[in-house]
Amino acid sequence: MKSLLALCVVWTVAVVSGTEEQKLNNCDEVRAAYSSKGFNVNDVPSKGVNGVPLKVCPQGYSCCTVEMEEKLSQQSHTEIKAPVSKLSTSLQSTFKQRHDHFDKFFRELLKNAEISLDSMFVKTYGMMYVQNSELFKNFFQSLTQYYVSGSAAVNLDSMLSEFWADLLERMFQLVNVQYEFSDTYMDCVSRHTEELQPFGDVPRKLRIQLTRSFIAARTFVRGLALMPEVANKVSTVSASPSCVRAAMKMLYCPYCSGQVALKPCQNYCLNVMRGCLANQADLDTEWNNFLDAMHSLAERLEGPFNFESVMDPIDVKISDAIMNMQENSMQVSQKVFQGCGTPKISAGFRSKRSVKESTFTSRFRPYSPEARPTTAAGTSLDRLTIEVKKKLKHAKKFWSTLPETMCVSEGIAAGDECWNGTAKSRYESDVIGSGLANQISNPDVDVDITKPDIVIRSQIAVLKEMTSRLKAAHSGVDITAESDDDGSGDESGSGCDGPNCDMYFSVPPTSDKERGGKAAGGSEVAGSPRVNPVQSNNSAGVTSRGSMALALCGLALALLASRLR
């Protein structure tokens, strides 16, 4: 009985072997497919040979040799790397373009704001502005430097304080041209800038708005720049030897049995690619967190931290501050004289220079908003953010879905008539989850889950850090700057969440008490409306403003005449 069973087994093996040998009598199809990959057709035997030496593919009769396995392994490495590289390159290109668009837009807004202010102030304040234009030029240079390099290059708070103190010094001398002021005296004036509030509430509000919008803008642009950097570094991660073997088995072992048209089963492909891209999938959590933070900050840029809404009308805001100072110049001067002492009358003032030449009596002219330069590429911040939010949403789960993306190509079979790794049949194993930890049960790729890839781990750390910066910027905080506990945290911190956040300045009170405005001869100017040269074309308002300036000058002359007597 045993002898009969043994004979039966030998006969079966012989029949199967004979069938395989008969089937592989001709390897012409394999030779054609192999040479189409750019390899030497002479590497392929003309008919099936003993496959015992093969290291990856089945070892029966085969159209493959060990040399062919090695070359096809290299080809497999290239073929699994190519789609990942292509997808990564597309991602890099998308966000490199978005970065360039935003960066160009923000830089051009800064430049246009400077041009607009210069044009308006030349028309409005004439030589008084021209003689002091370097103050404003330096102001915009500092803003640009802060946008480019952040708090490492410019302390925004200090820069703004110095700007207003310097502007006060210059204006104080212009409205009190009849006096001589020493450097020590002007230092005293600067020290009282915040106490005097000569520019009304404009400096405080502008500081808050500039801080929030600049932190949001530069952090968002840095985030856009980071995405291609991360994708590029991750795409350089090489496939492991076990991954290459598994890919070779999946893609080219059908060649060895002469089945060049047989495609891998889809679930088989998923398990192989999830094993090969296990480390990349682990990037997904922090990648998605980063994208969520970018999306939230983009919404801030659309709303309360809108860079365009702050920079576009900055000339109006600074002009508003100057008018505050001009209107309240007498009150400010009196407070300074009380605190710093009464200065001496200037000898030069007594001689040749006329009041008209020396005092700050600008002619306020309407300024047409249509004259503003156009922004970058004729676009707007709203358009840019709407577009980039779509791209950010589309980029979510990029790394964990790479296997699915790769396993839906024409070279993969969705049904049961497919290559399962050993034969043309249904793939029976379960599809394992994504990520390194799940690969412990991968039936097709040997993955060492105790050795995560160093490059991937470093990029996870980079994304975590950037996400923290983005979240801080969402609250108006630059976490790269040293904390300065000056009691202003609430103003530059949490920001405003509602849609009605005031991006423009409300009109300051104009009561007689606050304005301190009296016409020459002692009659009060009751309820005179504020007229901004940029915002009004009303000739009556312009006349009223010019009359007030002349009245102030007349009052100053009267005081001077009484002292000279």
TrEMBL record:
Free-text function comment from the UniProt entry: Cell surface proteoglycan.
PANTHER family reported for this sequence: GLYPICAN, GLYPICAN-4
Keyword Signal: yes
Signal peptide as annotated in the record: 1-18
Family as reported in the entry's similarity comment: Belongs to the glypican family.
Primary localization class, coarse: membrane
Record protein name field: Glypican 4
Compositional bias (Polar residues): 533-542
Location in the cell: Cell membrane
One GO cellular component term noted in the UniProt record for this chain: side of membrane
SUPFAM superfamilies the record matches: Frizzled cysteine-rich domain
Domain of life: Eukaryota
Membrane topology of this protein: Lipid-anchor; GPI-anchor
Region (Disordered): 477-542
GO terms of biological process kind: cell migration; regulation of protein localization to membrane; regulation of signal transduction
